[in-house]
Structures are given as structure tokens and as C-alpha cells.
Amino acid sequence: MSTTFKLLSILMPCALGLAACSQPAQPAGPPPLEGAAIGGDFTLTGEDGEPVSWSDFDGQYRTLYFGYTFCPDVCPVDTGRAMAGLKAFEKEAPDRAAKVQPLFISVDSERDTPAVLREFTDQFHPRLIGMTGTKEQLDKVTKDYAAQYSLGEKNEEGGYLVNHTSITYLFGPDGEPIAILPTDAGSEAVAAELDKWVR
Is residue 50 part of a domain? Predict the structure, then answer.
């Protein structure tokens, strides 16, 4: 065996190993939410005051969170971790990350005007789109997406809290539910989950 051939036989597995590291993480099985009755088309008012529909993002992966901008704790933490995870994924796999459209639906339409929504979403990610709607619209979309919300009583200053589901969903290009992003585990876990499912 020549010296060159010996060298190639040693280096080839290493090269293959390095190539494998740059590939997307391979799922261990089907998506956790595969077949779940979650989703459906909707049209709400976006942060620019114009209608935004779920179908506007057909062909893209979508992350979706229900919350409100006046939330004192959970919403900014969950949204911050989800968007930090997306930013980390963008650094590692920019082409695949570009296929992900992040969305934020406010269940507090009384206070979350388009201008307020834009100020909120811009803090977390330049591509995050905020939207809201009438009570009837929000009741329907939260039901379709297995989420809940309820407005608390107003205090003397007119402020109030909103109880709501705190889940960040990941949907596929056809609007199919794929997984729940693990925001409770931090941005690195979110990035790893995106890497697992976004192709």
C-alpha cells in the first residue's frame, strides 16, 4: 500500500465526519405534534395596520406565540428566548433560518395597537411580526391553535393582566404543526429544535 493511499485512508473518515457535523440534525422520529388538530387560516391586523393572514406565509416555517405586550414577565422572557434561538440558528444555518417566519399574536387588542406591537416586536427580532384582532377573531384563532386567554379585572389605574397560554409553536411550510419550541430551556435549546426540524 502506497504512503499516499495510507494517508487518504486515514484522512477520509475524518473528512466525512467533519462534513456530517455541518449537516442538519436528524430527527429521531416523527414531529411531536404530527397529526395534531392545531392550526387553520386566519386574518388579523398586523403591526402596520394592514391585514395579515396565515396563508401569507405558505411555503415558510412559522413560529407562533400568543401573548401581550404589557405582560410583566412571561411574554418578554418567552419571546426573548425564542428570538435569541432563531438568531443563533440564523448564524449556524442562514439559508434554512431564512425559511422561518416568527409571528406574535396579541390577545390584548385594547392596548396593543399596531404601533405598540411594532415597538414590542422590534425589540426581539427584525422579522418578528405582531398582530391582533377583535375579540371574535381572537376567540376563534386561539381555539383553532389550542390556546386560551382571559382578561383580568382592571385596577384603579385601568391596568389589568391577561391569563394566556405560553407556548411557542413551530409549524411547517404547509401550516402543519411540528413541535413546541423549548423556551423554558433557553435559546440554545430553541436553536437546536429549529435545527432538528427546519429543512
Answer: no
Backbone phi, psi, residue 78, to 5°: -60, -45
Chain segment 74-91, per-residue pLDDT in tens = 999 999 999 999 999 999
> How does DSSP assign 47-60, residue by residue?
TTSSEEEGGGGTTS
* Chain centre to alpha carbon of residue 75: 13
Q: Is residue 192 part of a domain?
A: yes
What confidence score (pLDDT) does residue 13 get? 40
For residue 65, give the DSSP letter.
E
Q: Which residues of 8-43 are buried (b: 16+ CB within 10 A; e: fewer)?
A: eeeeeeeeeeeeeeeeeeeeeeebebeeeebbeebe
Number of domains into which the chain is organized:
1
Q: What CATH number corresponds to the domain at position 87?
A: 3.40.30.10
User: pLDDT digit string (tens) for 161-196?
Assistant: 999 999 999 999 999 999 999 999 999 999 999 999
* Domain around 125: 59-197
Q: DSSP secondary structure string, 143-185?
A: HHTT--EEEPPP-TTS---EEE---EEEE-TTS-EEEE--GGG
Instruction: Decide if 96 contacts 56 (C-beta within 8 A).
Output: no
Residues written for the chain = 199
